[in-house]
Amino acid sequence: MDLAFRQNRILITNDKDFGELVFRLKLPHKGIMLFRLSDDTYLSKLLKFKQVMKRFKTKLSNSFIVITDKKIRIRKFEHVN
């Protein structure tokens, strides 16, 4: 997470623990994209990723994005370092 922050990159993960790092511990980030799909295959994730990039590309920086089968939630952080 620190490396992604220093390199100004959005981190893509399946690990729900990143929510705790961001919301409870308030660790700095440039964006987290959390996949919570029932179909955990590479192709399924790739299709959702393309969908997210097409619709929300300008909203991803400094945001915590949760991608599920049915919806995409984006929480923007204005105070990110």
UniProtKB/TrEMBL annotation:
InterPro entries: DUF5615 (IPR041049). Residues 1-68 form the DUF5615 domain. This is DUF5615 domain-containing protein. It comes from Candidatus Gottesmanbacteria bacterium RBG_16_38_7b.
